Amino acid sequence: MIEKAINKILSLGGYKEVTINGRTYSSGPSGIIALEPPKAETLKINTLTGIFDYVPDVKKQMIQVASNKSVYVLDADFSDAWLNRSVYLEAVHESPVFKFGDFMDVEIFIIAMQALFVQDETTALILKLIGNVKDEGVSNYNDDGITQQVTAKTGISLVAKVPVPNPVTLRPYRTFMEVEQPASTFIFRIKGGQGEAPRCALFEADGRMWRLEAIKNIKAWLADKIPSIKIIA
Fold first, then answer.
1. What DSSP letter does each residue of the chain carry, written as one string?
2. What predicted TM-score, i.e. pTM, was given to this entire model?
3. Domain ranges (residues) in the chain
4. Mean pLDDT, consecutive 10-residue segments, the chain of 233 residues?
């Protein structure tokens, strides 16, 4: 059937337009061109609250939670004969990202821990530990792959061996601020010594299951705020 339609268009000669099964085509010397209807540009926002503010003005729409950082408001049904869906709104979460898996200087690590994580007892423990590590005091010889020991100052002159907690449960800022940030486990490591300044790193250890939790949290927030709309996640 498609072959017959193409032959019909080509047989018209010159620049012609023809509609087949609701779809309009144009033929000319350069070949066949599909003439799709014009679409409005998708609005871009950065919060879930913006979706809540916008959605009541749109009829027959649904919400797609595409990821922990992207949510779309689009037609529930196809918009045209080309089976397109109009995307009215796109909410994208934008924020600085912690560099997991990279060792960094203690000062940079401390700043990142304070700025890019929900603060709790675990972040306080890590910050206290690395804030007291002496430049020459990291000892990895007691490293069994699960726990480490570092040399940390516990007073003006007293030096003690302090275990590094592992794994640690933290909540980095990784999704929209309106929802609870998902917690996940990390391996916390320190290396240095023998004249080398200490450096710290966090390694993801949950198989990125937090992404599913973030999507679940976004869907729950939207369902509570906009119960009348279909939400897929």
1. -HHHHHHHHHHH-SSEEEEETTEEEEEETTEEEE-PPP-PPPEEES-HHHHHHHGGG-SSEEEEE-SSSEEEEEESS--STT----EEEEEE-------TT--EEHHHHHHHHHHHB---HHHHHHHHHHHTEEEEEEE-TT--SS-EEEEEESSSS-EEEEEEP-SEEE-B--S-TTSPPPPEEEEEEEEEETTEEEEEEEEE-STTTHHHHHHHHHHHHHHHH-TTSEEE-
2. 0.73
3. 2-34, 43-95+213-232, 104-206
4. 56 61 64 64 90 77 92 80 77 93 93 96 89 57 46 46 79 97 94 76 93 96 91 89
